[in-house]
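Hi team,

Filling in the usual template for the complex we talked about on Friday. All components are listed, including any nucleic acid strands or ligand strings, so the model treats them as one assembly.

SUBMITTER: L.P.
PURPOSE: interface mapping
COMPONENTS: two
RESIDUES: 226
SEQUENCES:
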Amino acid sequence: GAVVSQHPSRVICKSGTSVKIECRSLDFQATTMFWYRQFPKQSLMLMATSNEGSKATYEQGVEKDKFLINHASLTLSTLTVTSAHPEDSSFYICSARGQNFYEQYFGPGTRLTVT
Amino acid sequence: SQKIEQNSEALNIQEGKTATLTCNYTNYSPAYLQWYRQDPGRGPVFLLLIRENEKEKRKERLKVTFDTTLKQSLFHITASQPADSATYLCALRNTGNQFYFGTGTSLTVIP
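RESULT (copied from the run log):
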């Protein structure tokens, strides 16, 4: 089946530093990937839609200069949280849409803690 | 404003009973609706998809209905088991091809 991996699974960083999270589709090509964040006991909030070879489309209220997204290949998208602050601490989840347009496959998530 | 609301934050039922979860949406015209399962600290796992022209979909012990007039989907788990305990999320695809998720319902099946 379609597998999506994320790396790292957990990361702790200091305030003011940048953190990069990778999302890979392991056994399929993903022309579109999505990035979500999830706060404790809340649902997933879509941050941006990433299409291979083009600029990401950000949801309203998401700072594109703070959350840099690069979808450099059909199997890899990265999210870089720049100048991280404690309020950026969250669970970040990516998903990828494969050939079946109707389904998206989620990664296991990355727990970011900013101290 | 657009909303996707799931009936209750938490639902407890006895093992063997049928769990029914509700998803209501406003100001969307989804082409289809999906249900996902999420375990703590994990990403969601796709369960079922139902299109706007379908009334009902089944998969093993799972059943989903979709009423576009009521703007509601019901998700049923029959013969529930403790292993079914998880958070269940509904999601809509909008015209821009993004997926938007509901607030989630935490289901606990009591042995």
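MY TAKE: The interface with chain A takes residues 9, 32, 34, 36, 41-46, 49, 89, 93, 97-104 of chain B (CB under 8 Å). Residues 36 and 47 of chain B are 5 Å apart (CA to CA).

Thanks, L.
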